[in-house]
Write a structure and sequence with these properties.
The complex is a heterodimer.
Chain A: E1 2-13, E2 16-28, E3 33-38, H1 44-51, E4 59-64, E5 67-68, H2 74-84, E6 85-88, H3 100-109, H4 116-130, H5 145-157, E7 163-167, H6 175-192, E8 195-200, E9 211-216, E10 219-225
Parallel strand pairs in A: 3-8, 3-9, 6-7, 7-8
Antiparallel strand pairs in A: 1-2, 1-4, 4-5, 9-10
Chain B: H1 3-19, H2 22-62, E1 65-68, H3 79-87, E2 92-107, E3 110-119, H4 121-127, E4 134-137, E5 147-151, H5 152-155, E6 178-182, E7 188-197, H6 202-205, E8 207-211, H7 212-218, E9 228-233, H8 239-248, E10 256-259, H9 260-267, H10 269-304, H11 306-314, H12 319-354, E11 357-358, E12 363-364, H13 370-396, H14 400-405
Helix pairs in contact in B: 1-12, 2-10, 2-12, 2-13, 9-10, 10-13, 12-13
Classes of the chains: A alpha/beta, B alpha+beta.
């Protein structure tokens, strides 16, 4: 369960203050597939970064599974990200010098509660799930964009995080690959009941979300389930 | 920082070097290797010169320990008895007296001032390898009279005109030729040249050797007097041990007892100080170059990977892992560079062993000890780690947003 209370983020650009998030209050239930939509500059990515502990709010509070993440120190945040959260970035963000297998294994290798065998088996399993087992010894540059994004999802999945954040994961993909990626998210959500928070600006993506919030100028202007809307 | 984190940091470092820019890796290793070679080359060369001079002084001048006349004396007092005493001491291979007179050599139209050294040829063989350095003819026999051996520079070369000579000579004396020695005390004698030698040590090569028996004809004092006594130590006995033993037996009462090291520290002290300064400058320059190069390499690597560093932090990789990733890269580059440097240095040493630097005064090769290699490796390694960890530390502290926005 994610509880967001009166979240604000203000950037200062010279003498001008920009409210990227302007008092966001929101609850995200466990197992929910939430889509954050809105125009460019509406605050979607900023909100995602706040929730993912990649940035700090100017004010407000985020509680994830009863942990007030604002109170965590730098090391605790790193550990929280490692054990509880997973990320999928718009530009895949794979380590270019590591193979597919090494990229996927990387977060699992850092977990103290996993043996080497468990790490390997887990990575293998998740690669099988995304259908790239046969490409495990390839480098990212030897894969297509869609394949790279699937590897990125596998990397986010390998630690079986409670919450998966995806920042416009289909922005660089054609519609066929986008659908493959979204189907994968849907499957993960349904099979493992993981909470997924995904930023998107493509209207047709909303069919995959349980719930959609729309942002404008850092505020939620619409919050509703797929097919309905409420505020 | 646990074992798993270190393992991940090492994996990231290894893969970055394996699959990153190969030319950058090779260039960096080459620079470190060259810096290592530069660090060790000059000191080794100076050490080689020092060793070469020491060896030649021991071999052709003073042995391991020298007994010279006390201040105000012309000869070592009671030379014969002193010599017998020294030769009976444990640790002494052999002691032999030297009696030297200044003289003028004449050959055809050439005249040359030299030192004539009187030796006991059989004893001298136990002290000096001079007898192995004959380039023509043969060494002196114990009972030889009227025969000399001369250095190659003294004999000269008949094909070189006198005005073109680097060093004055007799203009091409050959074995069997007759030369005249004028001792300046009214004694003039013709000698047959029995042999010509070349040691590479200028003071020995510019001398002429006769037997003590022969010198006694010139100056009867030569029989029981010595300008100095050279003492050769048996293997395993140090110069200091022999010196102390000589002093303990009272030899110090008849002459001044000094080791080769004592003599060289006086005569070469200033030169050694200059060598030490040059070595230090060379060492500091090499360390600075290595440090700057590695600093630049790692800084460029970190700057060009800022976004990736942000991503790694975002997926839960701790900043310590990221820092050690670059640290390990520097360690690997440093180790490979040092190994290359050691190989280059040993190749140079092997080359110079066959092609030493030869001057009219001395010849030198590289003198490298395992300790030299170890100390320089450690110094360079520490410099490399400092150079790599500083930018790695800085970049690993950057917040995720700043790094990812790059």
């Amino acid at each position: 369960m994610i509880i967001i209370e009166n979240l604000r983020k203000t950037y200062r650009m010279g003498d001008v203050e920009v409210n990227a998030l302007d008092g966001i209050t929101l609850n995200i239930a466990k197992g929910e597939f939430l889509g954050i939509m809105g125009a460019s500059g509406s605050g979607k990515t900023t909100l995602l970064h706040m929730l993912g502990l990649l940035d700090e709010p100017t004010s407000g509070r985020i509680t994830i599974d009863d942990v007030d993440v604002g109170r965590l120190n730098d090391y605790e945040k790193t550990q929280f990200r490692l054990y509880k959260l997973g990320y999928v970035f718009q530009d895949y963000a794979l380590v270019p010098d590591l193979t597919v297998m090494e990229n996927v294994s990387l977060p699992a290798m850092l977990r103290v509660d996993r043996t080497e065998e468990q790490t390997h088996a887990g990575s293998f399993e998740v690669l099988q799930k995304i259908g790239l087992c046969d490409r495990r010894d390839h480098l990212p540059r030897e894969l297509s964009g869609g394949q790279q994004q699937r590897v990125s999802i596998a990397r986010a999945m390998v630690n079986k995080p409670d919450i998966l954040f995806a920042d416009e994961p289909c922005a660089n993909l054609d519609s066929e690959n986008s659908r493959l990626v979204l189907d994968l998210f849907k499957e993960i959500n349904e099979e493992f009941h993981q909470t997924i928070v995904m930023v998107s600006h493509e209207d047709w993506h909303k069919d995959y979300f349980h719930r959609i919030i729309r942002l404008k100028d850092g505020k939620i202007i619409r919050d509703g389930t797929n097919g309905s809307s409420a505020h | 920082m646990g074992k798993k984190e270190l393992k991940v940091a090492f994996l990231l470092a290894l893969r970055s070097l394996q699959r990153g820019s190969r030319s950058s890796v090779i260039l960096t290793i080459l620079i470190i290797g060259m810096c290592f070679t530069n660090m060790i080359f000059l000191p080794s060369m100076f050490n080689g010169i020092g060793q070469s001079i020491t060896k030649q002084v021991v071999d052709y001048e003073v042995g391991n320990v020298l007994v010279s006349p006390k201040s105000g004396d012309q000869y070592v007092a009671d030379s014969g008895a002193t010599l017998d005493l020294i030769n009976g001491m444990p640790g002494v291979e052999r002691a032999t007296p030297h009696f030297t007179k200044g003289a003028t050599l004449k050959y055809r139209q050439r005249v040359l001032g030299v030192s004539v050294r009187a030796i006991s040829p059989s004893d001298e063989k136990l002290i000096s390898p001079l007898y192995t350095k004959m380039v023509a003819g043969s060494y002196l026999g114990e009972a030889d009279t009227g025969e000399v051996i001369i250095g190659r520079p003294v004999a000269g070369d008949a094909s070189v005109r006198q005005e073109d000579e680097f060093q004055a000579s007799l203009g091409g004396v050959r074995v069997g030729d007759s030369i005249t020695i004028d001792y300046g005390n009214g004694y003039v004698k013709d000698y047959r040249v029995k042999g010509i030698y070349y040691t590479g040590w200028s003071q020995a090569d510019s001398a002429v050797y006769v037997t003590s028996t022969d010198m006694a004809l010139v100056d009867p004092k030569a029989l029981d007097n010595a300008d100095y006594i050279t003492v050769k130590a048996k293997p395993g006995y140090s110069e200091t041990f022999i010196k102390n033993e000589l002093l303990a037996y009272g030899v110090g009462g008849n002459g001044k007892v000094q080791t080769t090291a004592d003599l060289l520290s006086k005569s070469m002290g200033r030169a050694l100080q200059s060598f030490a300064i040059i070595n230090m400058v060379s060492l500091v320059v090499s360390i600075i170059i290595t440090t700057v190069v590695l600093f630049i390499v790692i800084t460029i690597k970190t700057i060009s990977s800022r976004k990736q560093i942000g991503i790694l932090k975002a997926i839960g990789v701790d900043k310590e892992v990221i820092m050690h990733n670059y640290g390990f890269q520097v360690i690997i580059l440093g180790i490979l560079g040092i190994i290359l440097g050691i190989i280059l240095t040993l190749v140079l040493a092997a080359y110079m062993a066959y092609h030493p630097i030869v001057t009219p005064e001395w010849s030198a090769t590289l003198y490298i000890t395992p300790m030299d290699l170890l100390v320089n490796s450690v110094i360079l390694f520490i410099a490399a780690i400092v150079a790599g960890y500083v930018p790695a530390y800085q970049i690993s502290r950057e917040d995720i947003q700043t790094a990812m926005r790059t």
